[in-house]
Write a structure and sequence with these properties.
Pfam families: Peptidase_S8. The protein is of the alpha+beta class and about 500 residues long. Helices cover about 20% and strands about 25% of the residues. Bound molecules: calcium ion (3 copies). One calcium ion (CA) binds near residues 147, 195, 197, 198 and 434.
Length: about 500
């Protein structure tokens, strides 16, 4: 049976500008050699998708990849290996913990056959989606950067800290001054590949527990384009306080890097589920997923063969995803995700829901930004961005995500960086592949909140449940917008300093 669906997916990063700098300790060496700004507008658009993989801008079922969902949520049927091999199928991965198996088979009747295995509740296609389109990125003439730098004693401020208005917005420095830096907390970053030898990340990367779930690729980001989404997100959570580059919200948290999307931005749902389970089983206290997709409630597609109703398949896909997030939650993991960048009211979209922000036991984060911060450092840092999704049902918290306002003109200088369009400084500055970038999106908001979650976990020595972490995140957030929970801020904009007072 073919699987048709209405689907749209992307990584929630909207705007990027880059400053590619030498990763050298010497400030003189820190000169931008390239700067470009690009605005990508991603409007919600439903795309009708056929069962062909030819159009790689859209989500498609993978014709020979299947997800088997057991009736049990905590185990797989005994003897399933033998039954599957008897069908000529290959087991790609078994997740006994949640009763899921991912299988390859070229048998066109595989689905019908596998559904007959005792203890199997459903068999659906796995899905691949392009979550991020590198064709829409700028091309940067990246310097091939030597990283044979020497990092001196930790005494200086990290030289790009003056660019990090997001740290001011969440009162990160006050939390650090109180002695809370995320020490003792582990944050798993589920994303594209990462710059594993970036001097800002190396001190905190927990390589032993990091993992790649993308067949044919490695954990290290490996594209010529130096913007690396995963590297940017990781730096917001936990770039080291090492007198170099930038600082993350939780600069002493350990970073478990988990590659669930390939460097071109494609990812299978099975890779994401494996990443969630891996993080939960390898000591993560917090998971950050700066990824997002709209999945329809119902799907019915007219084909030459008649009408195909995929509603059940879609519901089962979500059953599988929820098993992964529920498993992590029960193992004590606080899960943060981006609310998405389509500027839609999540309370009032009739036919779609946003995932993984809509999964069970995850915290969804909307994005805020100043307007013209480089022109006026006293300006409000907590304005809802132009792109952020909103709605009380779909937003739990708000955090800095950055924006790129065309009304902000001219060139500005902030800290060590000058001659840059003033509006670029309203984006979030963090690590990229062999350098640093500005980027904006709810992809950047979620890791600010994940960093605050890490500060909370660190303060409590890891002995705190995800429901308690959520409660503290919400109660310590700064009230914004309408009193109480509201559409753009949820329970408020996260505050690191207030969070560590609980
Ligand atoms: Ca640093
Ligand atoms: Ca590198
Ligand atoms: Ca409010």
């Amino acid at each position: 049976m073919k699987f048709y669906a209405l689907f749209k997916a992307m990584l929630p990063v909207l705007f990027m500008a880059c400053i590619v700098s030498s990763c050298k300790r010497d400030d003189e060496a820190i000169k931008k050699n390239s700067l470009q700004v690009e605005k990508q507008t991603n409007q919600l658009q439903a795309t009708s998708i056929g069962a062909s993989e030819k159009n790689d801008n859209t989500g498609v079922p993978i014709s020979n990849k299947y997800i088997l969902i057991a009736s049990s949520e905590i185990s797989l049927p005994t003897g399933i290996d033998g039954e599957l091999s008897g069908m000529g199928a290959t087991i790609d991965k078994k997740l006994d913990q949640v009763g899921l198996t991912f299988v390859s088979s070229n048998d066109p009747d595989f689905k019908a056959k596998a559904k007959k295995i005792k203890g199997i509740r459903s068999v659906i296609n796995d899905y691949r989606a392009r979550w991020y389109d590198p064709q829409k990125e700028k091309t940067v003439a990246a310097q091939n950067l030597a990283e044979s730098h020497e990092i001196g004693p930790v005494a200086d401020n990290d030289f790009y800290f003056p660019l990090q208005w997001g740290m001011l917005a969440v009162d990160a420095r006050d939390a650090w001054a109180k002695g809370y830096t995320g020490q003792g907390a582990s944050v798993a970053i589920l994303d594209t590949g990462f710059d594993l030898d970036h001097p800002d990340l190396v001190p905190n990367i927990d390589l032993a527990n990091s993992a790649n779930f993308v067949p044919g690729e490695v954990l290290q980001y490996n594209l010529p384009d130096p913007f690396s989404h995963g590297t940017h997100v990781a730096g917001i959570v936990g770039a080291a306080d090492n007198a170099f580059g930038v600082i993350g919200v939780a600069p002493q948290a350990k970073l478990i890097l988990v590659k669930v999307l390939n460097d071109n931005g494609n990812g299978d749902f099975s890779w994401i589920m494996q990443g969630i389970i891996h993080a939960a089983d390898h000591g993560a206290n917090v998971i950050n997923m700066s990824i997002g997709a709209f999945i329809p409630h119902h799907s019915q597609t007219k084909t030459p063969d008649g009408v195909i109703n995929d509603t059940n398949e879609i519901q089962e896909l979500l059953v599988a995803m929820n098993r992964a997030t529920n498993y992590a939650y029960k193992k004590g993991v606080t899960i943060l995700t981006s609310a998405g960048n389509e500027a839609v009211d999540l309370n009032h979209i009739a036919d779609y829901d946003h995932y993984p922000s809509g999964c069970s036991n995850v915290i969804s984060v909307a994005a805020t930004s100043p307007v013209g911060w480089a022109n006026n450092f006293a300006t409000d840092l907590d304005i809802p961005t132009t792109y952020t999704n909103f709605g009380t049902s779909g937003v739990d918290l708000a955090a800095p995500g950055g924006d790129l306002y065309s009304t902000v003109t001219g060139n500005c200088t902030v800290g060590p960086v000058g001659g840059v369009p003033c509006n670029v400084f309203d984006l979030i500055f963090s690590t990229g592949n062999n350098g640093w970038f500005w980027a904006g999106g709810t992809s950047m908001a979620s890791p600010h909140a994940a960093g605050v979650a890490a500060l909370i976990v660190g303060k409590h020595g890891g002995n705190i449940s995800p429901s308690q972490v959520r409660s503290i995140l919400q109660r310590s957030a700064e009230e914004k917008g309408k009193p109480g929970k509201d559409a753009f801020f949820g329970f408020g904009r996260v505050n690191a300093s207030q969070a560590v007072d609980y």
